[in-house]
C-alpha cells in the first residue's frame, strides 16, 4: 500500500512544521490583526486601561474556552459549561451573602464553588464516558438540569456580590491590575497541566479512541478526568464572571457555552479531538472579545451589531482554516 | 511448561462464529506462526490473547496459571504485548509519544518525564536505525509518516511493552526487504531472551525464514501444530486448504455459463490509485471475473475506484470500446456501472426507510425522476425483488425488519430495474446466510448468462472458485497471478496469495 506514495519522503516544509509545533500561530496572527484594526479605528482602545478592561471582561470566556478545550482534546464536548458557570456563580454569591461577606466567607464560598464545578464535571463525565451517551445531547440535557438547579438556588438575578470580592477583582496590586496576576497564575497552571500524563492521554483518546483502548489506556477514566478539568475551569470562569459583574444571575453563563466552543475552534484545535492547544483557545477567546470591541468601535448601529459580529467570526474562522489547510497540504 | 496456552477458546459475533475452537501453546524462545486463510480466525485469536476481544468460552493459561484477560490493560499487566494489524497509533502524536503511550514514564505521579520518555523511545528507534527511511525521527508526527514507517512505530510500540509474550499480527505487510531483515534480527534476539512470539504473515518466505513452529487455523478451528523444520510450504498450504485440495474446483462446481467470445466489455489498463497499482485486465460480456487473495490486497480498492468512490491516479478505462472517465459514483452509474458492497450498513442500506425506498434510488437517478407515483414504482420494484426470491411482508416495511441476506437482496435489486453493463461486487455475501448466498450466486450467474460483465471480489475462496470463470490473485496492491480453467484450485489460490509480493 505504501508503494504508490513512497517516492515522496515526508519532510514537511518550514511553515508546516512551524504550524505543527505551534498550532495556535494562525490564531495569534488573527489576534494581532484585530488588535491593529482596533487601534486604527479607535487608538484609545489600545490604551493600557482599555486592554485591562478587555482582559477582565473576557477572562471568564478565556477560562471557559480552556475548560472546553480539555474535553474537546478527547473528542468530547461540553454543552453544559455555561450552565455550570451560572450555577457556580449563584452558589458562591448566595454562600458569601449567607456567611457575611468577610474574607473567610469569600474563601469558603470559592472552595465550595470549585467543588460544585468538579461535581458537575463528574456528572457529565459519568453520563458521557461511563454511560456512553452522546456527548452533545447528554451535556445539553445536564445543562438544563444545572440551570434548573441554579434557578432553585437563586430564582431571580440581582443579588450583589460582597464588595470585598469584586473590589479585589478590579483592584491593583503593586501597580498592576489584579486580573493580570490571575492571567499569570493561569499561564503557570496551563503549563503545569500541559506537562501531565493526563494531557497526553486525553489527546491520544481524542485521536483514536479504539487505538487508545487497544494500547491499554483506561479510556473511560481518562475521559471522565477531562470532564473534571472542564468542571474545574468552568468554576474558575464563574469566579471571573462574578468578579466582573459583581452580582448573581442564574442565567449568566448560558450564552457563553457556544462562544467557548467557537473560541476553541478559532484557536486551531480540532473539534474531532486529538489536536490542539489551550494557548490557542485562550487566543481564540480574546479574538472573540476583540471582534466584539471592534464591532463597537467601527460604529456599527446597535441593531446591526449581531449581524456584523457573526459575519466577523465567520471570516476569522475561514481565515484560520485557509492557513491551516495550506499548512497541511 | 508453555508460556502461554489457550484451549477451546471460541468467539461468536452474533450468528457468525469467528473462532470455533482455538488451541495454542506458545513456548519460551520460539516464534510461533499462525497460518490460515482469510477470516479463518487468526486475528480474533490474537485479539483474545491481547484482551481487546473477550472470548465466549475457553481457558487461557499463562505460565500454567489460569487467567482472565479482562482488557488490553490487563493483558499488558499479564505480560502480553501486541502489534495490531490495523495499527493502534495516534496520528497527531510524535513517534516517541506513541512508542511509550501505554506506559508513560511518570514524574512525581502526574507529570510526563520527557527525558525518560525520549530515552526509552530512542532505544527502540535505534533498533531500526538506517532502515527507517527519510523523515523518521522521535519528534516526527505519526500522521506524517509513510505506511511502512507507521508499521515500524507499531513494532517499536509492541517491543516497548518488553512483554514475555509478544504478538505480531501481520507486522511486515508494508515493510521493505531491509526493514524485514532488521525486524527478524530483533525477533531472533528476543528468542534468545526466552520470549514467546506469535507471528502472522502472508509471505511464505518470511514464515519459513523466522518461524519455529506453526499452527494452522481453518474455519475458526486450530487444525494442527507442526515444526517448520519438518514440513514444507506445500504441506502447510494443504493443511490450510483441507480435504480435496487437489481437485480443481471446476470439477465439483462448474460456473453455469462461460463468457461469450468477442470484444471485452470493460478494459482496464495500468490502473493505479490508493491501495493498488498497475492493474490491467479485460472482462468479456457474460464473464465473471474473480478477485482473489488475502484481505486488503487492493481488491476492494480497485472496485471502489472503478465505481468512482475513490480517486484514480493513473491508467485508463474503456467501456465497450469507448474511453471511460469516472469522476464520482453518479457518473459511474450513468455510464452503466453498478456496485454492491458487503458493507451494507455503510454503502448500501438506507437505514430506517421502507423497502420500496431502498429499492428505488438508482431508478430515480437513472430516470432523473423528481416525483414518482407509488403504484408505478411498485410495478418497477416488484419484478426485481421477485427475481431474487426476496422475502418481505410489504414494501412499506422498514428495511431494518429484514435479515442481512434479504437486505442485501434489496440492495442488489435496486440495480436490476435498469440493467447495468458491469456489476462490481465487493465481497457481497459478507455476513449473510447460506440460503441467501445460494440465491445471490444463482442470480449472478444468470445475469452473466444474459451478457452482463461481473467483477466479483469475495473473501471466501469457495465462492470465487465456484463462480468465477477467471481469478486474478491480488498481492500487495497488484495482480500477481491469473488462474483460469483447471488451475482454479484452492491450492493454487492459497499459494499465489501467500507468495512473496
Give a concise summary:
Chain B: InterPro entries: AAA+_ATPase (IPR003593), ABC_carbohydrate_import_ATPase (IPR050107), ABC_transporter-like_ATP-bd (IPR003439), ABC_transporter-like_CS (IPR017871), P-loop_NTPase (IPR027417). The complex is a heterodimer of chains A (about 325) and B (about 500). Chain A is an all-alpha fold and about 325 residues long.
What do you see in this structure?
Chain A: GO terms for molecular function: transmembrane transporter activity. Chain A: It is a multi-pass membrane protein. Chain A: Its main location: membrane. The complex is a heterodimer of chains A (329) and B (501). Chain A is mainly α. Chain A has one domain (23-328): ABC transporter involved in vitamin B12 uptake, BtuC, CATH 1.10.3470. In chain A, 73% of the residues lie in helices and 1% in strands. Chain A contains 14 helices and 2 strands; from the N terminus they run H-H-H-H-H-H-H-E-E-H-H-H-H-H-H-H. In chain A, strands 1-2 form a two-stranded antiparallel ribbon. Chain A is globular and about 55 Å long. Residues 1-11 of chain A have low confidence and may be disordered. With 501 residues, chain B is α/β, with parallel strands linked by helices. Chain B folds into 2 domains: 4-241, P-loop containing nucleotide triphosphate hydrolases (Rossmann fold, 3-Layer(aba) Sandwich); 249-253 and 285-498, Rossmann fold. Chain B is 34% helix and 25% strand. Chain B contains 19 helices and 22 strands. A 6-stranded mixed sheet of chain B has the order 6-9-10-3-11-12, sandwiched between helices. A 6-stranded mixed sheet of chain B has the order 18-19-20-15-21-22, with helices on both faces. The model of chain B is unreliable at 245-252 (pLDDT under 50).
